[in-house]
Known about the structure:
- Helix content is 79%, strand content 0%.
- It is mainly alpha-helical.
- The radius of gyration is 16 Å and the shape is globular.
Amino acid sequence: MLKQRVITAIVLLAILLPALFYPSPVPFCAVMLVLIAAGGWEWGRLHGLGQPAAFGLAGICLALCAFAWAAGWLVQPTPVLWLVVGMAWVLGGAWLVQAGVEGWPRIPMAVRLVGGVLALSLAWLAAAQARFIGIN
């Protein structure tokens, strides 16, 4: 199992690093978009969804990220968005820690799925905006 994980990590780094250091941020954003969509699929599978529904979740992640890209959010400063997202992250995290592991199943699956899709999409937006700002 460890060998498979190491090989996967090497392959992902071989794809991600050239995109990260490419002069234009577009390849990095595109690679990250694919990885976030894969994360959406994995989030669906972790919740017991079948293949079609998991691919649908990946498609929703892809659509949200593509919308943000098309709307020009990658180059626009969005401090209010990040303030709200940061507060939600801290408060939601505190609530989840307080509820503990046994509290997770009590959260409706729809809320968990929507929360995961939003977290993934916003993670992509944060990484893409950071790349547009610059890595140096």
